[in-house]
Amino acid sequence: MIRHILLDLDDTLYEGSEHLSSVVDARMTEFVARLLEVPEDQALRMRRYYAPRYGSTLTWLSEGCGLPDPLLDAFLEYVHPEDIRPFIRRPEVDETWLAGLEVPFSIFTNAPLEHALRVLSAIDVSPGLFTRIFDVRACGYRGKPHASAYHHVLSSLGIPASASLLVDDREENVRALVGLGGYGVLLLRDGQEGPYPFPTIRSLRELPRILEELDGRLARL
């Protein structure tokens, strides 16, 4: 049975504007350009080349460029807006709904902890509702979909992958946990269409139905 739910943060606990993604992406390019002292168009080409190979711009800066932790923290601080409220269209859920989940749940995000706390404040959800908040620092600056990030989270919770379920809006993140033997649900946004090899939902409020169906299927095995 599912013993713990891992909830992505951005575009999962809330529906964000497309403008947020463009702002974060532009800030990443600006940071790289200043760091490497190259024009922004060259920095963008470098990011587009290296980020897919390393899994993210952050991991490329860490492993490919050898940036120390203080500079990685500076990157995370720079790219995440200090005021997140203008980028939030609407929260997916509220505290009452979260408290009604029958399975413990944690946040699992590629953002830093301070960004997660700003988001929770903006959508009026208490951090105390979550068992843990696993941010990218907690995972050694290697976020989803790196296997090491999932292993760290599962080890910290003391559960096998087969007892976990991830809800995320990015297919590669869901696919990574499924590949480790866990379960995943893909939260679809406008324009996304299947089919996918795992359950999909259009709203986080559909999650109890998915849990019931999954537990029923597991009980019959």
TrEMBL record:
Transmembrane segments: none annotated. Signal peptide: none annotated. The keyword Hydrolase applies. The keyword Hydrolase applies. Pfam families: Hydrolase (PF00702). Keywords: Hydrolase. Coiled coil: none annotated. GO terms for molecular function: hydrolase activity. This is HAD-superfamily hydrolase, subfamily IA, variant 3. It comes from Winmispira thermophila (strain ATCC 700085 / DSM 6578 / Z-1203) (Spirochaeta thermophila).
